[in-house]
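Consider the tokenized backbone below.
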């Protein structure tokens, strides 16, 4: 797997992905043969089978593809959403949308990624985009 100074970030694609998140960077592998990004990171392109991959930065912009509300009692943290977001670059990620009530998240909403540290492990979450 080719990369831009990412060989030392981890010994596998999952560790490299997490190492980028720990540095507050959203990077995914992009196939140099078919030009497709993919998530979850793998050592082989799921689109064409090539091993010729390169880690590249993503814009963090996307659109809600699907969403559901997980209902919990207020004393257990209240409701939250789980969603699939289609990133501008193509791949879909499972995450959540913060910043609005879970019930207000709608398919087609424009969102922007951010990276949070939750108990020592970094994760990608999304918030409503300010772009129209």
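A designed sequence for it:
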């Amino acid at each position: 797997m080719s990369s831009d100074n990412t060989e030392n970030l981890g010994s596998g694609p999952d560790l490299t992905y997490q190492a980028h998140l720990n540095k507050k960077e959203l990077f995914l592998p992009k196939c140099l043969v078919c030009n497709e990004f993919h998530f979850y990171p793998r050592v082989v392109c799921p689109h064409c089978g090539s091993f010729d991959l390169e880690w590249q930065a993503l814009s963090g912009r996307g659109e809600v593809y699907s969403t559901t509300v997980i209902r919990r009692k207020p004393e257990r943290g209240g409701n939250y959403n789980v969603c699939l977001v289609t990133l501008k670059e193509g791949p879909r990620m499972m995450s959540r949308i913060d910043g609005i009530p879970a019930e207000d998240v709608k398919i087609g909403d424009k969102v922007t990624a951010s990276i949070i540290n939750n108990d020592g492990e970094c994760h990608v979450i999304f918030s409503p985009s300010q772009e129209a």
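Residues 1-8 have pLDDT under 50 and may be disordered.
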